Amino acid sequence: MKRAFNRRNFLSVAGLGLGAAALAACGGPSTTGAGAGAAGAAITDWSKVKPAAKITFMSSHPGKSANVEAQLIKEFEAANPGITVDLVTGGANYEEVAQKFQTSQAGNNVPDVVVASDVWWFRYAIADTVVANDELLATVGDKTDGFNATLYGDYNYAQKHWAVPYARSTPLFYYNKDHFKAAGLPDRAPKTWEEFAQWAPKIQAANAKKAGYQHAYQYPALAGYAGWTLQNVLWGQGGGWSKEWTLTANSEASVQAIQWVQDTIVKDGWAGVSSNDAVSDMTAGAVSSTVSSTGDLVGTLKAAKAANMNIGVGFLPGGAVSASPVCPTGGAGLVIAAKTSPERQLASAKFVSFMTNAQSTAKFSAATGYMPVRTDADMTSVLATTPQIQVALDQLKVTRSQDYGRVFLPGADQEMADAAAKIMNEKADVKATLTALAEKLEGIYTKTVKPKLKS
Amino acid sequence: MASTMSALDSAGRRGRAGGSRARRDAWVFLALALPNLALIAFFTYRPLLVNMYYSTLDWTLGAMDATVVGFGNYVEFFTSPDAPAVLGATGIFTVATVGGSMVLGLLVAVSLNQKVPGRTLARSAVFAPYVLSGVGVGMVWLFIFDPVYGALSWVLRSVGMASPQWINDPKLSLVMVIIVYVWKNLGYCAVVYLAGLQSLPQDVMEAAALDGAGPLRRFFLVSFPLLSPTTFFLLITSLLSSLQAFDIIKIMTPTGNGTGTLIFEAYLQAFGAYNRAGYSAAISVVLFVLLLIMTGLQLRFVERKVHYA
């Protein structure tokens, strides 16, 4: 019996092929609650586990730390002959590393140790993609009481720690000493923003004729971490993004604080908003002061020296309601991936402990300007070469953990940056914009965080 | 009777031979087509179907568990206050970049079609941006547009003007990426239009000239209608390319400040700050359906207006 292979047969075969491919592809996440999160909760007897011979460390090399990270890895391998560490560049910033770490969860080759910023570790914790490190660190003999209590405490959730502090930072007030001197001002950072508001017109007037000069103060680029850098102004005025899980972005104090920010740009005209990098704007001579991370300190001082410019650093200014503590902690920690073997997790714990011990954190701090994360870190030689780090060390004693509203809500930083852009660049109504922001953040909390909180 | 039997035998042999040939042809066809079909199915249609499945989930990127929400992500997208902004940015970006690239490309093509000295060099120069990396182009233009130390701000300051806030102001940042995208892609339109112009029948042009039609009338009444197959081709390719534009937008406005087109919003939702992989998949499906509809409409209605020479 003859049967020609006609168009209908062809389409049938193609359809069957496609259907088979589609069915084969419908893997992805489990919709029955039997994902790896449950498996990750299995109890491990760490005393019977032998560390793996090789692990992977994914980093964005914060503060241009690729060289010092490689050097610390060599020292770790020398101290732990049975373990080698593969350093992988996961991107140019925390977000790119997070993207790679999260997409790697779809496969079976996740990096073992990952740099996770203040807004990422919590998401990993509630998604069960990282493990709590308390037991692991105890197994490798790390007495975590050596960590700076505030910095280590930042990672405490559900009575466990989900990361260890690594490239931790705070914002600092950076100023051009020559510009301040030209305005007849003292060589120091302002104590409060109110004091700076009195200084700013003088700074602006004294430097206005300099080529390319723009503003007495430059707000950091909003696309970066607006929620972090504006936290200080909010706290100073008695406001904040949230009080624990209660959103306060549109409280009277918060509205007043952000209204003050808008006025400095729109009404008073002595402040601007950076498009890219406020520190670069300052080292280009376009602005007299800004706020930036301690992680930028060493690089900024080098750039200033090359530009024959005198840069000073000081505490973040306080506000009318609160002078201290108004400095938020920030930066990144190290997390240990859940989707690996206990052997790899144990080797990772050894590595994490080494990278953040007193000697390593002092070296890392010297190379970058990030905070030493252990209280017993010897900073003598670091301070001899970069005495400005002492300001950051002193400020560390009066820091405050960030509002939940910024660090624990996925996308909150983006929403805050969008709201800030409307207020600071488009002159939008402050109260209405912050109210819309608070509603949006509330929606994110209710929909994506609250149902996943661990008891 | 004998002759009838002989005819039947002969027909039977021909039938068996024909059937055998058809089966052989079918196997050859399958052997040649199936590998390609399998590759396309696996690498193109499989991700498409999987993405459709993911769009029905409330799934955080990286999480091992997800919840089935049916059409919930679609409902959320179309009822969210962000939808008009995303669809608006997509519409403005697409219309401006397709229109800009095609109109400017046509003008450049007409200019390059004249016999002027150095036109070969000019043609290469016009086409060069098209082959450059979008990432590199974005970074260079970002430096040009920077309001503090950008080249454009230096030029404006030298004539006593302040630089607009190209990057910070969401409306201007959309304009900025449109300018850069058009700059990069008009060379493609120009080269395709130039090829079209050079293939126009000269006898028709000469006849029009003899009839007293001036250059403008010849262009609008003769050349442009005859270029309609080229215009149709460019319209489809440019439209699809613009709706999928990503690299320049990502480099110049990494958080999508005013430039949240459908494809970039899908990226931001999954791989940016939100990690909402299911919601992002739903936005991707919306984009896919939009592309299907637009291509269908073009094939159905625009092609009718095309004059093939």
UniProtKB/TrEMBL annotation, chain A:
This is ABC transporter substrate-binding protein. Keywords: Signal. InterPro entries: Bact_solute-bd_prot1 (IPR050490), SBP (IPR006059), TAT_signal (IPR006311). PROSITE patterns: PROKAR_LIPOPROTEIN, TAT. Gene3D superfamilies: Periplasmic binding protein-like II (3.40.190.10). PANTHER family: ABC TRANSPORTER SUBSTRATE-BINDING PROTEIN (PTHR43649:SF30), ARABINOSE-BINDING PROTEIN-RELATED (PTHR43649). Residues 1-24 form the signal peptide.
